[in-house]
Specification:
Blueprint: E1 18-19, H1 22-30, H2 39-56, H3 72-90, H4 92-110, H5 116-154, H6 171-204, E2 206-215, E3 219-224, E4 229-233, E5 245-251, E6 254-257, H7 265-297, E7 302-309, E8 314-319, E9 330-333, H8 351-356, E10 366-371, E11 381-385, E12 391-395, H9 430-433, E13 449-451, H10 455-482, H11 492-495, H12 497-506, E14 508-511, E15 515-519, E16 524-528, E17 532-537, E18 543-547, E19 551-555, H13 561-566, H14 572-585, H15 605-621
Parallel strand pairs: 1-7
Antiparallel strand pairs: 2-3, 2-5, 3-4, 5-6, 7-8, 7-10, 8-9, 10-11, 11-12, 13-14, 14-15, 15-16, 17-18, 18-19
Length: 622
C-alpha cells in the first residue's frame, strides 16, 4: 500500500478551489493534438527534404557574365532551414512565421530554371514546410484548448501567492540572446563594409584579360597579354579551366577575378552561428518573461493536484485524486526550495547533527494547488508544503512539458522522512543503474585513500586533448595564413575542451586524517572532515560535495555513465561517493595519516594549455 499524500495546510487553498480529477486531467491530455502534429514528424520531413534538395540542386559556376558575390538570400534560406528544425520542436510560434518566409524564398529562388530532379526536390521542401506549418498551428491551437479545459475545470480565478524569491525566469536567455544578436549584427556590418570596399576598388580597377595557366587550392595562375604572370585568389578555382580566358580587376596592389566579388562567407557564417541561437534564446526569454508577468499580475485558475519531486529536481504533477501516482500529467523544473532541498533542518541549532546527516531528497507525494493555465511550454505556480509541514510557494524555472509515455519520476530507494518508494512508472535511480560494491575498510585505514579516473575516462580525456590541440593548431594556421578576422572564433571551441579533458584525465579525491583533498582541472582544494556535510553523484556523471558555509564543490564530467553502464563497469567516482560517505558517517574508519603532497593530485588544466602552445609552436617552427 502506498502512503497517503502529505496534506496541504488549509490556509493555502483558496475558497472554491476544485480538485483536478483524473477524468478532467485525461480530457485535458487528449486535447494536446493529433499524433500527426508531433514535432518529430515535421522536423524529420524538413530535414530529409532539405538534404535532398541540397544534393539535387547544382552549384552555379562563377563567370564574368554571372559573378558569384555575396548570397544573402542563400544565407536566409540556410538560416531558416536550420532554425526551423529547432523551432518546429520548441517554438511553434516562431515556426508559424518562419515557414511561410522560407517557402517564398524557395519558390522564388530555387524553382525557376531548375531541372526536373531539382524541381521535385524543392517541391518536396515546400510540402514539408506546409506540413510543418500545419503541425505548428495544430500545437498552438491545442494549447488554447488545454488552457480552456483547465479554466473550465477550475471554475474560479484567484491571484496566485508569490514566492519569497522574485522570479528571474527568462533573464539569462534574454541577456545571452541580446549578446549573440549583437554579435550577428556586428558581423552583418562587417560583411557589408567588406562588400562596399570591394566594390570601391572594382569601380576604379583596370580590367585585364588573361589566360589561365594553372590552378592552386585557393588561387589561379594567369598570364596577361603583356606577358606578366600573376597569382590571383579564387574561392572556386575549379570553375576556371586551364587555357581559358578570365578577367582580372587590378587597382594597384589590389586584384581579384571579375567573376568572384567579395562574398563575405566568413561573416555570413558568424551571422548564422550567432544569430540563430541568439534569436531563439531572445524569443524564448521574452515569452517566458511575458508568461511569468501575466501569472504574477492577473488572477489565475487554481486546481488542487498532487505533486512529487524526484532525485533530479524535477516536479511531477498528478491529478488530485491520483493518490497512487500512476499517471503524471505534467513535469517541469522548479527552484530547489530549502524545504525541498536535501538538507537537514537547522532550526533547532544542532550544528553537529547538520554536519553528520547525509543529504537526501524528500520525494513523498504531496497535495498542492496549481495556479495558471497548464499547457505544454507554460508557466505555473505551486502552493504546497515543505518538509517541516509549513506552506511553500514555488514557481517554474523552465517551461512545463508533457511527460513521455511510460516515463515517471526518478526516485531513489532512500527518502527523507519515509521508507516507501514511489509508485507508478519510474526510472531506476543513478545508484540502481550502476553496480557499486563497497570496499570501505571495516577498521581504520592507516594510509590515505585515493580515487581517480578509470581507464575509459582517461581514454575519453586523451581523445579530447588530441582534438583540442588539433583544432587550436588548425585555427592558428588559418589566422597566420589568412589574417586576423572571424576565424579567431574557431579557437574558442577546441579551447573549451581543456576543462573537461583535464578532469577526465586526472581528477583526484584523496581522504586522509585531516579531511578531503579535491583536485579538479585548475586547483586543489582541502576540506576538513568537520566541514564536509555530504557527498553525492548525479546520473550525468558529476560529483558534488556539500560543505558547511562554503556551498558545494562540484566536479562535472568525471566519467561516462552511459558507456560505463553498457559495459557493466563500476565507475571509480561511484565507489568514491559511497566510501567517502561511509568515512564521513563513521569517523573511526578514516585514515590515521596525512596525505603527502604528491598524493593530493595535481591540476592538469594549465599543463594542457602549455602543451597546446608548445604543439602550435612546434608546428610552425617545423
Amino acid at each position: 500500500m502506498s502512503e497517503p499524500p502529505v496534506p496541504i495546510p488549509s490556509g493555502s487553498v483558496p475558497p472554491g478551489t476544485a480538485v483536478w480529477s483524473s477524468d478532467a486531467a485525461a480530457r485535458w491530455t487528449h486535447a494536446q493534438g493529433a499524433p500527426w502534429a508531433r514535432p518529430l514528424w515535421s522536423a524529420a520531413a524538413l530535414l530529409i527534404t532539405v538534404v535532398w534538395a541540397s544534393a539535387a540542386t547544382p552549384d552555379r559556376p562563377c563567370g564574368d557574365a554571372a559573378p558569384c558575390g555575396a548570397d544573402w538570400l542563400g544565407l536566409a534560406e540556410t538560416g531558416l532551414s536550420a532554425g526551423l528544425l529547432y523551432w518546429l520542436v520548441r517554438l511553434p510560434e516562431l515556426a508559424l512565421i518562419a515557414a511561410p518566409v522560407l517557402a517564398v524564398i524557395v519558390a522564388r529562388v530555387e524553382l525557376p530554371g531548375s531541372g526536373p530532379v531539382a524541381v521535385a526536390a524543392n517541391s518536396s521542401v515546400l510540402l514539408a514546410l506546409a506540413f510543418g506549418w500545419a503541425a505548428a498551428c495544430a500545437r498552438v491551437t491545442a494549447r488554447h484548448r488545454q488552457r480552456g479545459r483547465a479554466e473550465r475545470a477550475a471554475g474560479v480565478r484567484h491571484s496566485p501567492p508569490q514566492p519569497a524569491v522574485r522570479s528571474r525566469r527568462g533573464i539569462m536567455p534574454v541577456s545571452a540572446g541580446l549578446v549573440l544578436v549583437g554579435v550577428a549584427a556586428f558581423a552583418v556590418v562587417q560583411g557589408l563594409d567588406g562588400i562596399r570596399a570591394d566594390q570601391h576598388h572594382a569601380d576604379r580597377a583596370a580590367r585585364i584579360t588573361a589566360t589561365v595557366v594553372g590552378r592552386g587550392a585557393e588561387s589561379v595562375r594567369v598570364r596577361t597579354g603583356d606577358g606578366r604572370r600573376l597569382s590571383v585568389s579564387a574561392s572556386s578555382p575549379e570553375d576556371h579551366r586551364v587555357g581559358g580566358m578570365v578577367t582580372v580587376l587590378e587597382d594597384g596592389r589590389w586584384r581579384r577575378l571579375a567573376a568572384e566579388p567579395y562574398d563575405a562567407f566568413g561573416w555570413q557564417l558568424l551571422i548564422l552561428a550567432a544569430g540563430l541561437p541568439g534569436g531563439s534564446m531572445l524569443l524564448t526569454g521574452l515569452l517566458a518573461r511575458r508568461r511569468a508577468a501575466a501569472l504574477r499580475r492577473a488572477p489565475a485558475p487554481p486546481l488542487r493536484v498532487l505533486e512529487r519531486i524526484d532525485d533530479h529536481g524535477r516536479i511531477w504533477i498528478y491529478a488530485g485524486d491520483d493518490e497512487a501516482a500512476r499517471s503524471p500529467v505534467l513535469v517541469g523544473r522548479f527552484p530547489a526550495d530549502r524545504a525541498y532541498a536535501d538538507e537537514p533542518g537547522t532550526e533547532q541549532g544542532d550544528d553537529e547533527a547538520d554536519e553528520e546527516e547525509p543529504l537526501v531528497m524528500d520525494t513523498r507525494l504531496r497535495e498542492a494547488v496549481m495556479f495558471g493555465s497548464p499547457h505544454e511550454g507554460g508557466e505555473l505556480v505551486l502552493a504546497t508544503t515543505g518538509r517541516d509541514g509549513r506552506p511553500v510557494v514555488i514557481r517554474t524555472t523552465g517551461p512545463v512539458r508533457l511527460p513521455r509515455p511510460g516515463k515517471g519520476p526518478v526516485i531513489a530507494t532512500r527518502q527523507a522522512g519515509t521508507t516507501s518508494a514511489a509508485t507508478g512508472p519510474q526510472e531506476p535511480s543513478a545508484a540502481a543503474r550502476v553496480p557499486t560494491p563497497l570496499r570501505t575498510p571495516l577498521s581504520p585505514a592507516e594510509h590515505p585513500l585515493r580515487w581517480g579516473p578509470s581507464a575509459l575516462a582517461r581514454t575519453s580525456g586523451l581523445a579530447m586533448t588530441v582534438f583540442m590541440i588539433a583544432g587550436v593548431t588548425f585555427g592558428v594556421h588559418l589566422l597566420v595564413t589568412e589574417g586576423f578576422g572571424w576565424k579567431v572564433l574557431l579557437l574558442l571551441g577546441p579551447l573549451t575542451l581543456a576543462d573537461a579533458a583535464a578532469v577526465q584525465l586526472n581528477w583526484r579525491v584523496t581522504a586522509d586524517s585531516s579531511g578531503l583533498w579535491l583536485a579538479g582541472a585548475w586547483k586543489v582544494r582541502h576540506v576538513p572532515w568537520e566541514r564536509v556535510r555530504a557527498v553525492r553523484y548525479t546520473a550525468e556523471g558529476s560529483v558534488e560535495i556539500a560543505m558547511t558555509g562554503d556551498g558545494t564543490w562540484r566536479l562535472p564530467g568525471v566519467g561516462l555513465p552511459k558507456a560505463e553502464r553498457r559495459l557493466n563497469l563500476c565507475p571509480s567516482y561511484v565507489r568514491m561517493v559511497q566510501e567517502v560517505t561511509a568515512l564521513h558517517t563513521h569517523p573511526e574508519l578514516r585514515p590515521t595519516r596525512p596525505a603527502p603532497r604528491a598524493d593530493r593530485g595535481r591540476p592538469l588544466g594549465p599543463v594542457l594549455l602549455v602543451l597546446t602552445v608548445l604543439a602550435v609552436r612546434a608546428r610552425f617552427l617545423g
